[in-house]
Design a protein that fits this description.
32% of the residues lie in helices and 28% in strands. Helix 3 runs antiparallel to helix 4. The protein has 10 helices and 14 strands. The termini are far apart. Strands 5-6-7-3-8-9 form a 6-stranded mixed beta sheet, sandwiched between helices. A 5-stranded mixed beta sheet has the order 13-10-12-11-14, sandwiched between helices. Strands 2-1-4 form a 3-stranded antiparallel beta sheet. The longest helix has 14 residues. The chain is elongated, with a radius of gyration of 21 Å. The chain is of the alpha/beta class.
């Protein structure tokens, strides 16, 4: 599979908010992390991808023409009725998805240690999320779309789920788009990252290349004052020193060899780009 999804100059205008000119491509066998603050447009982009919203302009191409039948969707809340037993979720989904495989669903229930006879309302948040993921995987999708699916889960459950995502993309026929506030999760598993800020793509590319292109500077105010502004993406000044996100890391290190840089995190990219100058 050459690509799983392409958003091409996608725009959705609500009047009060505009998702503008978003272009994303996810090759098969990869995971793309969609990051951004609340209200940045992440869920709007996902809803356009899923056909829940119609774009104002631009286009969405899915799975080389395969369409929504090949997409597994995991929202941030369990979509199943509280009154259903876990095993009844399988019967419900079997009537919704032509590719549903009950034996695969049973496999995931056992793997995730989900009690088949319990009602959904009796499950913890982590168990509900595992159930939703089990259902999404059991109709054998090629693209998995997750909208804040790991938020509110404890670290042990998140690690278990992230491992399952990595298993899912082991061949080039599967891919994942995951939206999350938990940037440390995305650093563990993502191949690509797109950062949305106020409806626009601010940073996008291969995760490792992005992290290598930027640097985090911690220094005295006098040292920061002598750095030319073109290198500074954003900065924070305190009583005892300053921090700044630096672009063009290699060139900066050549021009300012006395100012060592730390490797940034995805959270650093997000915070400094969003907040700019802070005192």
């Amino acid at each position: 599979m050459e690509y799983a999804v392409k958003l091409d100059h996608l725009t959705k205008d609500f009047g009060s908010f505009r998702l503008e000119d978003v272009s994303i491509s996810i090759p098969g066998g990869t995971i793309l992390g969609l990051i951004g603050e609340n209200g940045a447009g992440k869920s709007t982009a996902i809803k356009c991808l899923l056909g829940i919203l119609r774009p104002t302009s631009g286009s969405v191409e899915l799975l080389e023409g395969e369409g929504l039948g090949g997409v597994g969707y995991v929202p941030d809340e369990c979509p199943f009725s509280d009154q259903l037993q876990v095993r009844q979720v399988g019967a419900l989904c079997a009537g919704l998805f032509p590719g549903w495989e009950e034996s695969l669903f049973t496999h995931y229930l056992e793997k995730f240690e989900l009690p088949a006879k319990k009602k959904v309302k009796e499950l913890s948040r982590g168990m509900k999320m595992k159930l939703t993921i089990a259902a999404a995987l059991s109709h054998k999708p090629k693209l998995l779309v997750l909208d804040e699916a790991t938020s509110g889960l404890d670290p042990v459950v998140r690690d278990e789920i992230l491992d399952e995502f990595l298993n899912f993309i082991q061949d080039e026929d599967h891919a994942i788009l995951i939206s999350s506030h938990i940037t440390s999760d995305l650093e563990k598993i993502c191949d690509y990252v797109t950062y949305l800020h106020k409806g626009k793509v601010t940073i996008s590319g291969v995760k490792d290349e992005l992290l290598a292109a930027y640097g985090k500077l911690s220094c005295a105010r006098a040292d920061l004052d002598r750095v030319v502004p073109k290198f500074i993406v954003g900065k924070r000044e305190g009583n005892y020193g300053c921090q700044a996100l630096i672009n063009d890391r290699a060139r900066f290190q050549r021009e300012y060899p006395g100012l060592p840089l730390e490797a940034p995190t995805l959270e650093d990219l997000m915070i400094f780009t969003t907040r700019g100058d802070q005192k």
